[in-house]
Task: structure prediction
Amino acid sequence: MLYIFLIIFVVCFCATMWKIKPRSQEQILVSILGLLTLFIGLRSLRWPDTEVYVMAFVNSPDIIHILQGEPYGYGEYGYYAICCFVKTFTNSWRVYLMMMAALSMWLLYKNLKEYSLVPLMGLANYISRFLLNRDMVQMRSSLVILIIMWATKYAYERKPIQYFLLVLLGYQFHHMALLAVPFYFIANVKFKNWMVMVGLLVAVILSQTLAVSIESYVDQYSQDLQYSTYTTEEYKEEALGLRNPMIYFQTVILLLYCFCRKRLHKSMEYYEVFKSGYFYSTLILIMFCNYTALSGRTSTIFASMEMFILPYIFVSSKGVVRALFAVGCFAVFIYFFSEKYMQAVSQF
Result:
């Protein structure tokens, strides 16, 4: 399977670098998403959490008897309702996994078409950074994050009703959707580059000087977000703190995005929104660095904007710089995916 994904990365890279007709790129995008749907739906039960999701489906009633049952494994009623809906038409848990995969890939397609200037590059980023941990493991997280990404356009357009209705919908699948509430109020803030750099520096200082206070805050609210598992002593001992390489990875991307603003195309209307969202994500990653697993789980919502940001940077560059940037990105994509895949397989 790893080799098939390597081929997918190569196809995305070639399609990104070569001037392929939009219709052909669309066909490649849809074909890859269809293939990903099959991979996700046909995955082994040995993948983490997959058996719990299957049992949740098996123990769910059909939609007619939804009030007579209760969620199994996970407590969100939105996810339970989907199980009941699918159960109305089939008892096959394999079909259920396939339908959940298809729903996520459809949402991913909608987001890439709406926000990404180079959808295949954005798709490659999503596969490398998020696919294995979300769609192959935490399906609920995948749904809520893609819903929040779609809601971003309403934050940009200052349409609070549509935005918060989608946040509420996402909350029915995973309580992490609460983290999207503050974003509405900062989405259109035009953070100056110096403000971003100062903000990152302050976050680093506070993460160390207020470690005890942050620990108390995390312990108090992690249960509401259903992340109390990641605040146990086991996870605290494994925390990387400021040694977490993802902090520096996201910081580099954020700063690149900030300083290439003058070269970006005028039609990039979501520039400030993505800047605010990715800045928000990076601050969370730093502030909760003493809980590496928790910081990763909470920052990942708006870290997803990476699949829109990297194509922005790619389009803003020219010639050799653009080629080197693309080569560097896809090399990192392959590295990230290979590491995550080998780590997951080693647990089988």
Q: What stands out?
A: Confidence is low (pLDDT under 50) at residues 227-232. DSSP finds 17 helices and no strands in the chain. The two ends are 15 Å apart (CA to CA).
